[in-house]
Please model this.
Amino acid sequence: MPAFFMSCLTEEIVSPLQTDIETRLADVEPDVEVLLAEVVSGATLRLFIDHPDGVTLGLCERVSGRLNDYRDRYSLEVSSPGADRPLTKPQHFRRFLGCTVRVRLWEAGRSHVAGGTPTDRRSVTGELVGASQADVTVAAADGVITLPYEHILRCNLVPGD
Model:
């Protein structure tokens, strides 16, 4: 498992980088929610944000301006979550109960079918039927699967639901 993930909060799929960005924006853009902060190809910092009034180009520009010091290390992209919105925190998962999700795991064999049987999956797609502080439960075509947050690499809504 990558070292940066080991330092993440176990009840969330949140990197230290995302935590730092959330802290920086909390006072200056308190209504902005950082849904996901990820480094892509080692050179691009991609942020997905949300806001109660929606995400506009102006909001993306303001957030980008607040994070100018990251431009020394990364090309910065700030955007709305889109239809395949990432889910990273327990409250995100609870908000979208009943929706279809695709969950990608850090490695095969780390998810568990209800009852404790390991699977050989790298991803699970199905209806999100449960979300606690420790794990999520997905009703896949072949059964109900409980996935601890620390085993999840990424989770997105599946558009069209």
Remarks:
- Residues 138 and 144 are 6 Å apart (CA to CA).
- The beta strands are 33-40, 44-50, 75-79, 100-105, 112-113, 117-118, 123-131, 135-140, 143-148, 152-157.
- The mean pLDDT is 84.
- The radius of gyration is 16 Å.
